[in-house]
Specification:
The protein has 389 residues and is mainly alpha-helical. The chain has 2 domains: 2-338, no CATH class; 345-389. It is built from 13 helices and 2 strands; from the N terminus they run ααααααβαααααβαα. The chain has helices at 2-36, 41-63, 73-100, 103-110, 113-123, 134-155, 187-214, 218-240, 253-280, 282-286, 291-303, 310-338, 343-385; strands at residues 160-161, 308-309. It has a two-stranded antiparallel sheet. Helix 1 crosses helix 11 (291-303) and helix 4 (103-110) runs antiparallel to helix 6 (134-155). The longest helix is centred in the last third of the chain and has 43 residues, at 343-385. Residues 178-184, 341-348 and 375-389 have low confidence and may be disordered.
Length: 389
């Protein structure tokens, strides 16, 4: 029964992370549409977390009000760091690197998150390397396969593959504004920002694993994280963007983007990620990041009239295979940890104890017999030596 429960948890975690990447792919597409419409990305991030906080704070207050433990300074610090690394600062650094470099390079750097998370988690002893075990080899191999598949997906195109033709492009609906990406050619700074943002995202997952151990309320913890992210993101955007026209929201793609990204992306999916990290650890959650490329490519081909290539197909197959390998290795590792100690391992000790106990019992019985015989002999001797009157 316990084994079936663990298998069910593993399947549930896998399905949840796939759903997360599907939702995030929609957010990426809407980010692209909002940016094309001329919306400042820092303002977009600030609004995203403001909408997310407005949604998740009351939800968490009512859903977990009876089982929520006392909030400590340690948990508050964890939430602040998560709001900083995985929220305002992490996302703004990645968006800034996107402006300074290119979309292809930024996508390639994001795919390094599983490897960075694995290394940091092993160093902090949150993940067991276990290279001498088959499960450990599967985790390492699967992580490398995912990174390799994502790189293949990003850098190799090959011939065009026509699976479907929709001739539908949402980019034509939004008003185009000139891009300012070419104004800054500081490629080195963009590379550094991209690497730092990946490290921050990995730390976000790892801190959530630490927080889940002491504060097992994902909704309440996510509410704190999104609240801090909204404060930090708003302050950052106000400092960097003084054009108040950028802060105006109408009934257009901008409002739809921040509402969807905030309520669904930050308010709901952050809770799901926190639950999966608590169940399976930060490495398991990070391995699904390259899956985002596949979903973005599929959605982009449907609604943005983007092309699919052979490299996308080969890289996608490798990414999916990597997910199966890591999931298998993680399930084997958890099964080994939760498996009760076999009786064979303690049978020899038990037999020795039983033999020792039997010897002690036999010795005690023999001593009692000897005492009884000696006592009986004394009685006989006394009876014989008494003279008759």
């Amino acid at each position: 029964m316990a084994t079936m429960s663990k298998v069910g948890d593993g399947l549930k975690a896998t399905i949840l992370m796939v759903v997360v990447q599907v939702i995030f792919s929609g957010i990426n597409i809407m980010y692209k549409l909002a940016a094309t419409d001329g919306m400042d990305l820092r303002v977009l991030v600030a609004y995203r977390f403001l909408f997310g906080a407005a949604f998740i704070v009351p939800v968490a207050f009512f859903l977990e009000r009876k089982k929520r433990p006392k909030l400590t300074w340690k948990v508050s610090l964890f939430a602040l760091l998560c709001g900083l690394f995985g929220g305002a600062l992490g996302q703004n650094l990645m968006l800034e690197s996107l402006v300074l470099t290119s979309a292809t390079f930024a996508a390639a750097m994001v795919n390094l998150i599983p490897g960075i998370t694995f290394i940091v988690a092993v160093c902090l002893r949150l993940e067991n390397l276990g290279w001498h075990t088959l499960a450990g080899k599967a985790k390492v191999l699967g992580t490398l396969m995912g990174i390799g598949g994502a790189m293949l997906f990003t850098f190799y195109k090959g011939p065009n593959i026509t699976i479907w033709e929709t001739n539908f492009n949402l980019m034509k609906i939004t008003s185009h504004h000139p891009s300012h990406a070419a104004e800054s050619g500081n490629l080195a700074l963009g590379v550094i920002l991209a690497i730092v943002s990946c490290v921050f995202y990995s730390l976000w997952l790892i801190i959530q694993a630490k927080a889940a151990a002491v504060y097992p309320c994902p909704q309440s913890f996510t509410a704190l994280v999104v609240f801090f992210a909204s404060l930090l993101g708003t302050v950052s955007a106000l400092c960097m963007q003084r054009d108040w026209s950028q802060w105006k929201l109408g009934w257009d793609i901008r409002l739809l983007t921040v509402a969807y990204a905030g309520i669904v992306g930050s308010g709901i999916m952050f809770v799901v990620i926190a639950q999966v990290v608590g169940m399976r650890g930060p490495v398991f959650a990070s391995v699904f990041n390259p899956l985002l490329l596949i979903f973005v490519a599929i959605v982009g081909s449907l609604v943005l009239d983007e092309k699919l290539y052979l490299g996308s197909l080969l890289g996608g197959i490798l990414i999916i295979a990597a997910l199966f390998v890591v999931s298998w290795g993680k399930s084997k590792e958890i099964k080994k940890i939760t498996q009760p100690v076999p009786e064979e391992d303690t049978s020899i000790e038990d037999q020795e104890r039983e033999k020792s106990s039997d010897r002690n019992n036999d010795q005690l019985v023999q001593e009692q017999k000897n005492v009884s015989i000696e006592s009986h002999a004394d009685q006989i001797e006394i009876t014989v030596t008494i003279p008759k009157k």
